[in-house]
Amino acid sequence: MSRPLRIEFPGAWYHVMNRGRRGEEIFAGSKDFKAFIELLQESAELWAVKISAYCLMSNHYHLLLQTPLGNLSRYMRHLNGVYTQRYNRAHNCDGTLFRGRYKAILVEEDPYLLELVRYIHRNPLRAGMVEKLEQYQWSSHAGYLSRSARWDWLHKDFILSMFATPQKKRNELYRDFVAQPDSENILDVFERKKWPGIIGRSEFIDWAKNNFFTEKVHKQVPDSAQLAPDIGAIKSAVCRYYGVAEESLMHSVRGMVNEPRNVAIYLTRALCRKDLAQISAAYGMRGYSSASSVFERINKRLDEDQALRKCISEIKERIIHCKSQTET
């Protein structure tokens, strides 16, 4: 099974979702809902994780959380593992409860957190389960309207502070905010068949690419391609390194080696993991077999050509750390 993309660093925010295997229930009744919420509080304190929103549906859950220690994977392993054990014990069953690895989207702090809180809390409304949010008890919506100490564990004050008004008015503004429909941008994200690994402005996505692409790129992590530089960035870096025009990458002359073009093709395959048909089209080739041949020739040369290794290494550094990368 392929591994999902996980970008972890201190202070990171995530939207997390997991569902039951084969769409089965993970909450069979009120005792299970209560048990999960208790575990949320207990595990958040244990792992120093801040839970800002949650919504539990019968066969899945949504969380918005922050990890001051950059420990999302360890926290989620504990949360899902302990809940599975407690669920199985309560229902006299065994085996896996969740369908697989949880989904986690890295979220830029501003302006997306408020939008995500609204999206999470409005789940029962979108599902037609209730007519008013206040009618659904298995979300943190009530915590945002309450000043009771029993909700002190919920990391809501930071979210409410985004309304930038006197504190006594924030609960009312929150109520008005979640009463409005979800933004089209947020709905577009979650209605896709494949969720993105990152939500944020282009600057934030570029920052993630620059800092985590080298660490995360892996064949078993297909979503790491979301961090990859685009073909335009690769072409630009190669042309700057060799001092050639970009149009020279689009053709070759029989009997002559066009090293900049070959290097660009190799890096496109190595960094972007585009398929051969896409690479062939990007470099004006007639068939994908030509791109494959170029890649294999460069790959073979790297074993014995130190100068070429150095060249490709330097271009990689320029590509990965270039602040002018654009969102893929």
Structure description:
- The chain has 328 residues and is of the alpha+beta class.
- It is 50% helix and 9% strand.
- It is built from 14 helices and five strands.
- Strands 2-3-1-4-5 form a five-stranded mixed β-sheet, with helices on both faces.
- Strand 2 and strand 3 form a beta hairpin.
- The longest helix has 20 residues, at 72-91.
- Residues 215-224 and 323-328 have low confidence and may be disordered.
Features:
328 residues; alpha+beta; elongated
- The share of residues in helices is 40-55%
Whole-number mean pLDDT: 85
Major sheet? 5 strands, mixed
Q: Would you tell me the structural class of the helices and strands?
A: alpha+beta
Instruction: Extract low-pLDDT stretches.
Output: 215-224, 323-328
- Side-by-side strand order of the widest sheet: 2-3-1-4-5
Order of helices and strands: EHEEHEHHHHHHEHHHHHH
Shape: elongated
Number of strands: 5
Number of helices: 14
Provide a brief overview of the structure.
The protein is of the alpha+beta class and 328 residues long. Helix content is 50%, strand content 9%.
List strands and helices in order, with pairings.
Elements: E1 12-19, H1 30-47, E2 50-56, E3 60-67, H2 72-91, E4 103-107, H3 109-121, H4 123-126, H5 141-145, H6 157-160, H7 167-179, H8 184-191, E5 198-199, H9 202-216, H10 231-242, H11 259-272, H12 276-282, H13 288-301, H14 306-321
Parallel strand pairs: 4-5
Antiparallel strand pairs: 1-3, 1-4, 2-3
Helix pairs in contact: 1-2, 10-11, 10-14, 11-13, 12-13
